[in-house]
């Protein structure tokens, strides 16, 4: 259902932390003009953890309204409370999102059966395409392939963003799920290989900074052109790394700021990128060809 380079878009903020909706509108146009295949709003990179409930929905509405149906909009609606995730998913559907991305419940460490029941209840309750999101490095919760395979029988669960960082896990999911559920990479460093091994795209941090290149890389990989895929990805390799020199989205917000697309705001407990890391991020941006 969703394919290619799907940007996990940053949420622009002013220096005082207030949301900047004018900058968000500019950012959406930048991505559409650059070939981004879908926009994922208010995910981890969009600082969903520090947006309140009404801000969360307001960002989704703004992105949907600015996109005007030109590309899909996927809303991050996961939470560690099933009730909260259900309400966010319902509100996102009402706001016009084309799909929702639901991270595994964090901190409370549910069992695999608890994960199954969590996702099943939300999918049964809200008739919108839903993408599972497994990122054990952040959540302390790893959704096992057998649990994902059980969830593939639910019609409106259409994909999984797998961000364990393991290409072997991607291959296993592709093998287990077949045509029942799409697999997306959640790690830019292995996205090219993931797509060449059957994933349908990537939900990307790097695409915030190099959207055209990420779109072209994904298109080449989906076409099975390994040589072109690797040639593009090699230019992006240092950027994939540099954008995680500090916790996401600290480096990527600073990098997007260097493109004069957003102001420098970021919310505590995150802080601006350390001065000592600026040269490394700039060097990676130059190698990727996004700055001179």
Automatic annotation (TrEMBL):
Record-listed pyruvate binding positions? 45, 203
Q: Where in the cell is it found?
A: Cytoplasm
| Record field: catalytic activity | L-aspartate 4-semialdehyde + pyruvate = (2S,4S)-4-hydroxy-2,3,4,5-tetrahydrodipicolinate + H2O + H(+)
Q: In which pathway does it act?
A: Amino-acid biosynthesis; L-lysine biosynthesis via DAP pathway; (S)-tetrahydrodipicolinate from L-aspartate: step 3/4
Q: Which GO terms describe its molecular function?
A: 4-hydroxy-tetrahydrodipicolinate synthase activity
Classify the main location.
cytoplasm
Task: Provide the site residues for: Part of a proton relay during catalysis.
Answer: 44, 107
Query: Which segment of the chain is annotated as a signal peptide?
Result: none
Give the EC number(s) listed in the UniProt record.
4.3.3.7
| Alphabetical list of InterPro entries matching this protein | Aldolase_TIM, DapA, DapA-like, Schiff_base-form_aldolases_AS, Schiff_base-form_aldolases_CS
Task: Say if the entry is tagged with keyword Cytoplasm.
Answer: yes
Q: Which domain of life is it from?
A: Bacteria
- Residues forming the catalytic site: 133 (proton donor/acceptor), 161 (schiff-base intermediate with substrate)
SUPFAM superfamilies (alphabetical): Aldolase (SSF51569)
Give one Pfam family, short name only: DHDPS
Keywords assigned by UniProt, alphabetized? Amino-acid biosynthesis, Cytoplasm, Diaminopimelate biosynthesis, Lyase, Lysine biosynthesis, Schiff base
Give the record's family classification. Answer: Belongs to the DapA family.
General function of this protein: Catalyzes the condensation of (S)-aspartate-beta-semialdehyde [(S)-ASA] and pyruvate to 4-hydroxy-tetrahydrodipicolinate (HTPA).
Q: How does it assemble?
A: Homotetramer; dimer of dimers.
What is the protein named? Answer: 4-hydroxy-tetrahydrodipicolinate synthase
State the species of origin.
Answer: Candidatus Competibacter phosphatis
Gene name linked to the record:
dapA
